[in-house]
């Protein structure tokens, strides 16, 4: 297990009772380095959507817990937020919850001279993700997908 995965797993365990106490669920936890700075991000959700008070309550409690546990030696910024409308679908639980919804897929390398696709999420397994695009079923290897997220429809 990498250091990043260890920090994310420990944070998620610490966050679980905090999320339950605040009536939210954990969408994702990520520990990333961007521009020379480390960020620990916790994404929370609930059916009616999270508000600023939810984020503040969870952030304060999580910050206190992280200070007590002190398992991340690097300086980092803690961020607690909603995953947003165009949320990234990283885990199988995210894909499962998004079945039948429109998604956008960005590929690392072009397929049929395109790197961007959109369609209705039709199925997925350990190796691939399939979407319906204008009644055409397209399957993509997970290893070829840079990002998959819910499509925003305004």
Explain what you see.
With about 150 residues, the protein is of the alpha+beta class. Helices cover about 30% and strands about 40% of the residues. It has helices at about 5-20, 50-70, 90-95; strands spanning about 25-35, 35-45, 75-80, 100-110, 115-125, 130-135, 135-140, 145-150. A five-stranded antiparallel β-sheet has the order 7-6-5-4-8. The chain has a three-stranded mixed β-sheet with strand order 1-2-3. Strand 1 and strand 2 (about 35-45) form a beta hairpin. The longest helix is centred in the N-terminal third of the chain and has 19 residues, at about 5-20.
Which helices and strands appear, and what pairs or packs with what?
Elements: H1 3-21, E1 25-34, E2 37-45, H2 52-69, E3 76-81, H3 92-97, E4 102-111, E5 114-124, E6 128-133, E7 136-141, E8 145-150
Parallel strand pairs: 2-3
Antiparallel strand pairs: 1-2, 4-5, 4-8, 5-6, 6-7
Helix pairs in contact: 1-2
Question: What is the makeup of the main sheet?
Answer: 5 strands, antiparallel
Helical residues, percent? 25-40%
- Shape descriptor: globular
Range of strand content? 35-45%
Q: What's the rounded overall pLDDT mean?
A: 95
Q: Report the structural category.
A: alpha+beta
Low-confidence stretches: none
Number of helices: 3
Outline:
With 154 residues, the protein is α+β, with helices and mostly antiparallel strands. Helix content is 28%, strand content 42%.
């Amino acid at each position: 297990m990498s250091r990043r995965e260890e920090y994310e797993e420990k944070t998620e365990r610490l966050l679980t009772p905090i999320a339950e106490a605040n009536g939210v669920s954990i969408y994702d936890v990520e520990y990333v380095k961007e521009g020379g700075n480390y960020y620990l991000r916790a994404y929370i959700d609930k059916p009616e959507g999270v508000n600023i008070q939810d984020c503040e309550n969870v952030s304060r409690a999580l910050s206190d817990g992280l200070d007590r546990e002190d398992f991340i030696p690097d300086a980092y910024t803690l961020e607690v937020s909603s995953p947003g409308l165009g949320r990234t679908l990283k885990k199988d639980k995210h894909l499962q919850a998004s079945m039948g919804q429109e998604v956008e897929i960005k590929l690392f390398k072009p397929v049929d001279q395109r790197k961007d696709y959109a369609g209705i999420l039709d199925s997925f397994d350990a190796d691939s993700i399939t979407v319906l695009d204008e009644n055409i079923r397209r399957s993509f290897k997970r290893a070829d997908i840079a990002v998959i997220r819910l499509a925003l429809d305004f």
